[in-house]
Amino acid sequence: MKQVPNIAGLLLVAFFAAFPLVYTGANYDYVMHVLITGFFYAILASSWSMLAGYAGQFSFGHMAFMGIGAYGTALFCHYFYITEAPTGICTEFGFFGNWLVIKNAIGVTSTTLTQDCLQQAIAGWGDTVRVWRMPVLLGIVLGTLAGGFAGLLVGLLVLRLRAAYLALFTLGFSEIIKAIISAEIDITRGQAGMVLPALFENGVTVFGTEYSATDKVPPYYIMFALLLACLALLTWLSRSRFGLFVRALREDADAAAALGVNTTRYKVIVFTITTAMAAAAGAVQAHYVQIITPNMLFLLQMSLVVAMAVIGGVENFVAAAIGAIFLQIMLELLRTSFSIGGIEVDMTVWRLVFFGVLLMLVLRFARNGLIAPLIEYFGRAGVAEETIAKRKAGQEAQS
């Protein structure tokens, strides 16, 4: 019985790993998109679960750090290029025999060709000079580092305070980031959004099979692999000494401090790690959808991540991840409208009502979520009997 969660987990991983190779429905691209988005929310929900459920640090800024990761890679890929020759009009530096070119910020304009310094140079060069985009992988890495660094700064600034102040600060921080992105039109293009290159702009060949830049299979496996990597790291952390200290902070920070635990240090570490995970998910998702706008930072999105973690099980990051995937699928299935007595029910609106009702029922009757109790039930199966048997054996040995 104790191995049931492990076996179920392996079967679930095997199912998602094989799904793109065996599913042949006419709505293949749509289903794959739903699952990729589900994996994206699963990373956010599981990392937030580690922060709030394990460490007791309730943050409303998770989507802000996700946005920092997304805009970090977007700005890098949009403004930085490598050329064989200097443009003479852009900001540029010598770079291993080539030139590192930084485009000028022109914002939203209908005269891009005449104002974009690199486009002007390309128009003059024709096909005589090669121009390379920056590697997408490097952009993702930099976006992840940017999100983690922002998390470190926020953590150092406010994690000495109580949880309520952290929640209020991160809520304000999220709105500030959204306002800055919306206002800096010259750099971020504001509400017009920024276009990004695809994860594999020139396509990719895997085991002899060619996939185009718009194919769903490569981003599916990349997002799935990122989710598994995040869950593996969170599992390792939770089972280590670090996880023990983090749980001690959640239960009683004052008692943990009295026992010699550097409470601020561990709060900052867990905050930095989880925000870096959110930034990594945002960077990969940005290259998958290939366009980002400040709308991705709306508070409603943060509420959705919190609700997914709560319904799955906020004190178990695996349950939170499973809950996020399940709820993303259910929200898409609930888009189908139907008629009752000649009255058309528009589920594109009412599906969020059902979602809210489910959340309230879970908070009232299943405070540790719907999935976490099942994992705990099977994981603890036989523990009582085993404890009793050990006590009897000890008593018999003493007598």
UniProtKB/TrEMBL annotation:
Report the superkingdom from the record: Bacteria
What parts of the sequence cross the membrane? 34-56, 63-82, 136-159, 166-185, 220-237, 268-288, 300-327, 348-366
Entry keyword set: Cell membrane, Membrane, Transmembrane, Transmembrane helix
* UniProt feature coiled coil, ranges: none
Which InterPro entries does its entry note? ABC_transp_permease, LivM-like
Q: Where in the cell is it found?
A: Cell membrane
Membrane topology category: Multi-pass membrane protein
What is any one of the record's Gene Ontology cellular component terms?
plasma membrane
* Pfam families xref list: BPD_transp_2
Q: A single GO molecular function, which one?
A: branched-chain amino acid transmembrane transporter activity
- Annotated PANTHER family: HIGH-AFFINITY BRANCHED-CHAIN AMINO ACID TRANSPORT PROTEIN BRAE, HIGH-AFFINITY BRANCHED-CHAIN AMINO ACID TRANSPORT SYSTEM PERMEASE
Q: What is this protein called?
A: High-affinity branched-chain amino acid transport system permease protein LivH
Q: What organism is this sequence from?
A: Roseinatronobacter ekhonensis
Q: Lineage in the entry?
A: Bacteria, Pseudomonadati, Pseudomonadota, Alphaproteobacteria, Rhodobacterales
